[in-house]
Write a structure and sequence with these properties.
It holds the Pfam family Rx_N. InterPro entries: Chloro_Bact_Ser_Proteases, Peptidase_S1_PA, Peptidase_S1_PA_chymotrypsin, Peptidase_S1C, RX-like_CC, Rx_N. The chain has 395 residues and is an alpha+beta fold. The chain has 4 domains: 2-56, no CATH class; 91-191, Thrombin, subunit H (Beta Barrel); 215-303, Trypsin-like serine proteases (Thrombin, subunit H); 329-394. 43% of the residues lie in helices and 25% in strands. The chain has a 7-stranded antiparallel sheet. A 6-stranded antiparallel beta barrel has the order 8-9-10-13-12-11. A hairpin with a 5-residue loop joins strand 11 (267-269) and strand 12. Helix 1 (2-8) runs antiparallel to helix 2 (22-62) and helix 6 (300-313) packs parallel to helix 9. It is globular, with a radius of gyration of 39 Å.
């Protein structure tokens, strides 16, 4: 605009009269030529300046400041990250269950487990926890301390109520029966009857390749609020935490993803929705019960090594030999029942192995678990032979 204002201020040359002498005429001609030249220069300069100004103004008008581009790109990244977390939660949460520990007011008359949970309206909720679906047969993995009252119950009044969602999105609840537990690793396996329903087992990852700083997410039911997601990072690896029997659980994962009462037994997952640990413990601020942000999970590699033995034997590997010896000397009635149980378990294992071979699974953690299952299948076959021989001797 300064350039345009200067251009308007240039005066036009005066008209020249032709009544002067030749010397004056020559002088006047020279003056006129100078003025005309000056005008031409001014016009040329003004035109050039006007063009430059127009181009500059056009560029400023049409371009956005670099900060706008940076802010827009940052918003896009935030939106993509949020969408990814939402997707991870949506595909993982159907595999997470809500567990209630109940104490019945009296021993129920009905033998039906579902009727038991419905009939006794005076049942007292003694605790809550979380867990996740291990396989399509209804096995649920959780912490031992979530179901320890049921595991040690001698009154017949303790029950475990499991709320879950099937693959079709239908909500249901069933009574959970303890299949096995390992106090040393604070792990337990429940079994629910899901006949007529298809379950969505959690996808297992691996904990051996974890790095501090990786994103992780905890899904559970803190204080009874179902399907709660908390986010954080892997804060540390190789930690030691106490187990319910006082021994140390080594190799625990530390995270700042919030874990509160009711989160225990739920999955700690990575950015792909794969389970990398079982949420177990938290340090709380003294006198408040509020999480301090220092939370721990049992690594999934430890869980993968332990759970198959709990499903098949009901006890950890370290106690297996003692269990087998006790079973060998059971009476004929008990032997037949055990024989039927082990046969059903063998068929279930074989079904899982056949299904895995058809799907051609390549995940390392899954392969390790399948190898353990194959070993267990061989052990079960040996035990079936021993039971059959023992049953024949008793007859």
């Amino acid at each position: 605009m300064v350039v345009l204002g200067s251009l308007h201020g240039i005066p036009s040359p005066p008209l020249v009269q032709g009544t002067t002498s030749s010397s004056s005429s020559n002088s006047q001609d020279s003056t006129n030529r100078s003025l005309i030249l000056a005008r031409r220069r001014a016009v040329v300069f003004g035109s050039t300046s006007l063009g430059i100004a127009s181009l500059v103004n056009l560029h400023i008008f049409n371009s956005k400041p670099p900060l706008c581009h940076s802010a827009a790109a940052e918003e896009d990244e935030i939106e993509k990250e949020e969408d990814r977390i939402v997707h991870v939660f949506q595909i993982t949460s159907p595999s997470v269950v809500f567990i209630q520990d109940l104490e019945l007011a009296k021993i129920p008359k009905s033998s039906s487990s579902d009727a038991t949970l419905i009939e006794d309206e005076n049942a007292k909720v003694e605790g809550t926890g979380s867990g996740f679906i291990w396989d399509k047969f209804g096995h649920i993995v959780t912490n031992y301390h979530v179901v320890d009252k049921l595991a040690t119950d001698r009154s017949g009044l303790q029950r475990c109520k499991v709320f879950l969602i099937d693959a079709g999105g239908n909500s249901l609840y069933r009574e959970g029966k303890i299949i096995g537990f390992d106090v040393a690793y604070d792990l337990a396996v429940l079994k629910v009857d899901v006949e007529g329903h298809e379950l969505k087992p959690a996808v297992l990852g691996t904990s051996r390749d974890l790095r501090v700083g990786q994103n992780c997410f905890a899904i559970g039911n803190p204080y009874g609020y179902e399907n709660t997601l908390t986010t954080g990072v892997v804060s540390g690896l190789g930690r030691e935490i106490p187990s319910p029997n006082g021994r140390a659980i080594r190799g625990a994962i530390q995270t700042d993803a919030a874990i509160n009462a009711g989160n225990s037994g739920g999955p700690l997952i990575n950015s792909y929705g794969h389970v990398i640990g079982v949420n177990t413990a938290t340090f709380t601020r003294k006198g408040t019960g509020v999480s301090s942000g220092v939370n721990f999970a049992i690594p999934i590699d430890t869980v993968v090594r332990t759970v198959p033995y709990l499903i098949v034997y009901g006890t950890p590997y370290s106690d297996r030999l003692a269990s087998v010896e006790l079973l060998k000397f059971a009476r004929i009635g008990g032997i037949k029942k055990k024989l039927q149980k082990w046969l059903q378990m063998l068929l279930a294992i074989q079904a899982v192995l056949e299904d895995a071979e058809e799907k051609q699974l390549t995940d390392k953690a899954v392969k390790l678990w399948l190898d353990n299952l194959r070993d267990l299948a061989y052990d079960v076959e040996d035990m079936l032979d021993e039971f059959a021989v023992e049953a024949m001797r008793c007859n």
